[in-house]
Design brief:
elongated, 7-stranded mixed β-sheet, alpha/beta, single chain, 13 helices, 332 residues
Amino acid sequence: MHRVVVVAYDGVVPFDLAVPVEVFGRARGADGGAAYQVRVCGATGEVRAGALGLRVPFDLSAMAEADTVVVPGVADLDAPVPEAVRVALADSPARLLSICTGAFVLAAAGRLDGRRATTHWAAAAELARRYPRVIVDPGVLFVEDAPVSTSAGAAAGLDLCLHVVRRDHGAAVAAETARSCVMPLERAGGQAQFIAYEPPAPAGHSLGPLLAWLTDNLHRPLTLAEIAAYAMMSPRSLSRHFRDQTGTTPMRWLSRHRVRRAQHLLERSDQPVERIGELVGFTSPTAFRACFRQLVGVSPRDYRAAFPPSAPHPGIAPIARQEAAFSAPRSR
């Protein structure tokens, strides 16, 4: 039977730890028997997991027999990765999965060097900064770069685990597992649709006044020449300074912030989608839909269906109350 080992350590996010235990534990093969043997291991017999204290039934030697090792997210990115965990991951021949900020643990073990990877959108830039050899993709729900796969934040771990079940046992088993978890087998779009609305650059930024003006004029069909005239620069000089300070071009910055403003309006107003496109400066519904889908991963209508105006604004706080009981005796 395929062995899945989930690594627990102090500061692990309990939701991320529970996801692979539940998904792989619920999977049933065509014969109705368990599709996986799931174990939780750690360097210590007990770990702190937010408001919980968890008993860990197996030590790290369980990883030697694992076919798949799952690394859940860590709550504090500045907490050092336990050396025993780092070494065990560095040496593991198993298929590796990370959930949310578990990518930082895999990166610390050197397992993401030269690979595409993702993590929670709020931590993606930090992952790229700390580990420049990792090719970070912040816009997707998960990345498969065999034998390593990484998922975005929280619920994206469900998407990755169900994808693995489908890889291992086919669509029928994965669909039944998803049904058991009350989870769609596939979700539309990537995590770009969950990224919070970005404010303009803080005061003191040398382009701050221009960015503030652009933000106030998103509704206008601005051209590069108009923006350069306001900044009292040539278009070429403006583009060079803009890229140096923001990492992108003026027109791409404008498109991104128009789409972010459109997300804001889709969540908080009942204006028609076409009207919202006009309000944020797109000259046609077609251009609005194409740009929105390119940046967010779903259409404006699908985004509104996911985040209707009556729903609270999505945040990144973890869901409270996760119950996990690992009471088996600790063994090798």
